[in-house]
């Protein structure tokens, strides 16, 4: 039997990145295509100690069904941490543990979006979440990214146009710090402007911040959630890049008025997140040196990002521009305006370097982008140098042969 697939899923294509991953498995390929955190940063020994201790002394507490909203000690630890570090107000807000940041986006969409509603998104933006929005029948409308964050004039004019034409805009999706895929950080003035405009048009904001703890240069910029006076920002964080992505543990902070729908949405999806891994996160945050651990991870990424950027400056054609990430895992490079990066990426793959074309991250999947994403967290130093050398030569050959007249 050939089962009939729902309209919502039939129109979705598998992530181009997951497909490219298969090519990345070739040991001869230099992969700048993935998005994995560096395995060097996983606190393996400590995870082993914590797991062994609890499985020996109190196994039932981590093996029995848990609470939908999450393991209470971890929720309390995170609330204290976020209140102190980001100034979040937990008189007005609640925090649930979710199964990775991806589930934070999923629950937000499940609760807020009806089929045919509009979700605004930075463009380009993380394709995993774009696909989540699509899977609920949302219409995606992109707001271009600039080197200092979202184009807020475009945000305002788009909202004016959509509202005038009677579209129901449910929320804006933004990744203000070390954005995936561009590596760009939205400056404070633009964060304030984003909040002001969303307030003016009365739309919600989903602030996705899985890389926020990984700042290795520049100075901290307040989150949009910290400016939220009227409960319009849902804030999503994750342990995927600070502990280990296979834990599938993240957290969602939201206005208390959303407690009931989010509880039910999570119950429908997976009942609760993995209790053993929540326990490990909490023990690690409270009994080990969390700040020292983050500092070690930042140093790893700082080193790798600096090396890749330095090599790009040396080797890339001067007409190829690129972002300067102050944290996170990615940098995005841009061929001259008007060029499509997709065939460039295919050629790079033929030459043994895996990249992701910017078009994979667009609101319109048929759109064209001159950008391509490079990941520096996974490849070794040697591979970074070798891969950028290959790409650098390709940028010269490509621009010479494909110059836009
Ligand atoms: C911007 C962004 N949001 C969310 C996620 C999902 O992360 P996870 O579900 O592992 O927390 C990712 C993963 O790469 C991401 O880049």
What does this structure look like?
With 405 residues, this protein is α/β, with parallel strands linked by helices. It has helices spanning 7-10, 16-24, 44-57, 59-63, 72-86, 101-112, 127-135, 152-164, 188-200, 259-269, 275-287, 290-315, 341-350, 381-402; strands at residues 30-31, 93-98, 118-123, 139-146, 149-150, 169-174, 204-208, 233-238, 250-255, 321-322, 330-334, 353-354, 356-357, 371-375. The protein has 2 domains: 7-42 and 292-402, Aspartate Aminotransferase, domain 1 (Alpha-Beta Complex); 64-287, Aspartate Aminotransferase, domain 2. It has an 8-stranded mixed β-sheet, sandwiched between helices. It contains 14 helices and 14 strands. Bound molecules: pyridoxal-5'-phosphate. The site of pyridoxal-5'-phosphate has 15 residues, from helix 6 and helix 7. Pyridoxal-5'-phosphate binds at residues 35, 100-102, 126, 128-129, 175, 180, 208, 210, 238, 240, 245, 250.
Q: What is shown here, in short?
A:
The chain has 405 residues and is an alpha/beta fold. It is 43% helix and 16% strand. The chain is built from 14 helices and 14 strands.
